């Protein structure tokens, strides 16, 4: 009997603390479109957080990127969304905040680690309220096959004249498609084309803000010239580029059939896992030697608090950690090509990622011109620039017509504040 009582007491002693721990544990769920990042979150990011906060358990629950916008909105409206909402940049997340679905985060510990530019994609138009913690930006440029450049005997171009001379020499050599990009998906042409090289023409933020305040128009030379340059790309994209999809372009490059890939830095990790050749990168060539360079360093991803979360305090603890230098280093080096927006510098371990981020030292940065304010109406400026860029490269529209059509669409609904 004594032995039985002793066993019961021992069982109680062992089980009670475990039961208490279970009662205190908080479960958080993160909604995201970044399904490619699932292993990173499960194997690196979440374990690092939970090691410091064992009472908070986090689940990363991504969905298909193409379904995310509609699906997460439906969940928020139905009250079934997770505690933490991965934030698209600019208007999509702003709309969530304005509907009361995202909580304000001005007073969150760690927000002081971000500049106004870093927070701009998740801050109200009046600059008063920030509603997502900035996580990362993506940078545009060109990735190239180092072996192909060596075989053909070309150097990394710094000016547009050099750039087209490189393309011409690769074309004449005949062993590689000079550049892998298609126009079938349209967004690829604008994102890898116009948004990539355009800042060197309209001078980055100067031009983007000029569109917003009405001092510049899409029919101005600095907005039409990028189309004219892109029209010359047609001769170097290979046969059938008009029917080429985004995955087709990726495959052409990673299989070693194309020498250059107009890129977003998000390609770094997948390209490294697929290509069996060494890659390098260069920024958009400037028009003339000595010109100031500008790059698209686009705020891409943030994370916010579901205003109706039942675990708001635990969620804020997690968000403060996301705002820390520790997370900045961990995320940027776990997902090379997604660059920290934290004001604490991060040293990139991946050489190709470091090449991209090094351009910040010499070039002025900007975001995509259709991303904020002027992209809210109908017709949508972003979609219009997709269409017109693809048409210009295909040769079915002139650069001047592209400028006229996009400006006409913008004028139909947008009136700059005086």
TrEMBL record:
A GO cellular component annotation in the UniProt record: periplasmic space
Lineage per the UniProt record: Bacteria, Pseudomonadati, Pseudomonadota, Alphaproteobacteria, Hyphomicrobiales
Protein name: Probable sugar-binding periplasmic protein
UniProt-listed PROSITE patterns: SBP_BACTERIAL_1 (PS01037)
Main location: periplasm
InterPro entries attached to this UniProt entry: Bact_solute-bd_prot1, SBP, SBP_1_CS
Region forming the signal peptide: 1-23
Subcellular location: Periplasm
Family: Belongs to the bacterial solute-binding protein 1 family.
Annotated transmembrane regions: none
Alphabetic keyword roster: Periplasm, Signal, Sugar transport, Transport
Domain of life per record: Bacteria
Chain intervals for the UniProt region annotation (Disordered): 396-418
Role of this protein: Part of a binding-protein-dependent transport system for a sugar.
Keyword Transport: yes
GO annotation terms (biological process): transmembrane transport
